[in-house]
Design a protein that fits this description.
Rossmann fold; 2 domains; 446 residues; binds nicotinamide-adenine-dinucleotide; six-stranded parallel sheet; single chain; 13 helices; alpha/beta; ten-stranded mixed sheet
């Protein structure tokens, strides 16, 4: 698509886009948003700070299964009611909350979000949106049926570098893209055995509520809570789900991709407990306006990732950024480091200057100087403003559920190392019957 056509299309889309149900009617007397926060330690504390930094937000409810984290959040928001069980919060405060922020480990995202959405509440949910493909489909369906404001917690989605990379790719700076390579050397996998025995559950933690809908398991210090649950198949989504979702986001969005056709994960054999420490996942996607007839996507993670490859060789013997994505097109390559660095154009093995003004003549992308503290709240404030009817969320579940599904298909492929799985988007099933068992899970009653 030519640059001028792209700009026209974008403007037309922006002007005709339908805004989801806002809470404007509900809050018109005072135009404020009453928020409930589920999971207020770790990233939840940052989410709480960013949402509550919006001048029109009142934090009215806090929930955490760890009383230390709950107490710390309560100290900052003394007027908020506190809960240990999100079900009690949502049931008791149904009429007194306008929106819900979900910042729990991945296995709890869907149970909390779905309960809130069924009560017609807009939801800001951390990434990846869900733990299972079936949940991602369900969340998207409910959000669309109810026309709710939703946003997934990929805050860098609203950053300058990512918006610029999207504009450049969609304007054809490297022509049609045939391959994307993306990588992170982070290690949210675990190749060891399941630890034996059981530790005393600390008094400040409700372990049964932490497990929630996931299988019963004895408590072990430092293995699950906090944070390390990401490495384990019953609770997290490995490095692909953790970092992949951020790093995939821009290429996925820029190339207007839908879910993939095939997925192959070259990793160690599954052990039923931890995710592999190294994943090399190859996806093929159906072509779009911005790609060849098909697009190949290669993800690598874990220590040592990515392996050397000519596609990743930089001019001047420069070192590859620690994490990032490389778009490879018919005219050249575009490197997008993760994160807070400008995209770099490489043509015929040399860096080329990017004249941003030629692509963004009216400076619609805003301030190009990166500042995380300044920019991170944008994504949250956009959600609040969308709830109040004055903006539109940029990572709604209609988008982020598809991105999450793509990520989760790569995670499932890790159960069948080196085997190519074929995904049927319409039927929401793999051709390989044995893989379908991992699309959903049984919820435990708790
Ligand atoms: N967007 C980002 O940049 C970013 C960064 C880090 C984490 N995350 C996401 O945030 C989420 C949380 O990650 P984390 O690193 O903060 O994990 P964490 O384990 O450090 O913190 C999770 C918090 O939720 C609480 N919690 C757990 N189960 C709960 C339940 N059932 N009800 C209420 N509270 C519960 C825990 O006690 C803790 O306070 C994950 O989905 C993760 O992927 C996003």
């Amino acid at each position: 698509m030519k640059k001028r056509d792209f700009l026209k299309t974008s403007a037309a889309l922006a002007s005709t886009a339908l805004f989801p149900n806002s809470l404007f009617a509900l809050t018109k007397d005072n135009k404020r948003l009453r928020t409930a926060h589920v999971g207020v330690g770790g990233m939840g504390a940052a989410d709480l700070a960013s949402i509550s930094s919006h001048a029109l937000v009142d934090v009215v409810a806090l929930c955490d299964v760890d009383s230390k984290n709950l107490d710390a959040a309560k100290a900052l928001h003394p007027g908020a009611k506190t809960y240990t069980d999100y079900r009690t919060l949502l049931t008791e405060m149904r009429e007194d909350i306008d929106a819900v922020v979900v910042s729990t480990p991945d296995h709890t995202h869907a149970p909390v979000s779905m309960m809130a959405m069924k009560m017609d509440k807009p939801v800001y949910c951390q990434k990846p949106l869900t733990h299972f493909v079936s949940e991602a489909r369900e969340m998207r369906k409910i959000a669309e049926e109810k026309n709710l404001v939703t946003q997934m917690g990929i805050q860098v989605h609203s950053f300058y570098d990512y918006k610029l990379a999207t504009l450049l790719i969609q304007s054809g700076i490297i022509g049609k893209v045939h391959t994307v390579r993306a990588w992170s050397p982070k290690n949210w996998g675990y190749d060891g055995p399941e630890p034996k025995g059981e530790d005393l559950v600390p008094e400040h933690l409700d372990w049964d509520l932490w497990l929630g809908t996931s299988p019963e398991r004895p408590y072990k210090e430092t293995v699950y809570h906090p944070g390390n649950w990401r490495k384990l198949v019953d609770y997290g989504c490995g490095t692909l789900g953790d970092m992949g979702v951020h790093i995939f986001d821009t290429p996925y969005n820029a190339l207007a991709l839908d879910v993939p056709l095939t997925i192959t994960n070259n990793c160690r054999k599954p052990n039923g407990f931890g995710f592999p420490e190294n994943n090399n996942v190859t996806y093929t996607f159906p072509g779009t306006n911005f790609t060849d007839d098909t697009l190949t996507w290669i993800w690598s993670d874990g220590p040592g990732a990515p392996k050397k490859h000519k596609d990743l060789k930089l001019p001047k013997k420069d070192k590859l950024p620690l994490q990032g994505a490389m778009f490879i097109g018919e005219k050249g390559r575009l490197l997008l480091p993760h994160f807070m660095e400008l995209p770099r154009l490489i043509i015929d093995g040399e860096y080329k200057e990017i004249d941003v003004s030629a692509f963004d003549p009216y400076n619609s992308l805003g301030n190009s100087k990166n500042d995380y503290e300044r920019d991170a709240p944008k994504h949250y404030h956009q959600f609040v403003d969308a709830c109040l009817g004055t903006d539109k969320a940029s990572a709604p579940f209609s988008y982020s559920a598809r991105l999450t599904e793509t990520i989760l298909l790569g995670v499932i492929a890790g159960r069948f190392p080196k085997k190519t799985l074929h995904w049927d988007n319409e039927k929401t099933r793999f051709k390989e019957e044995e893989a379908n068992a991992f699309l959903s899970g049984n919820y435990r009653s708790f």
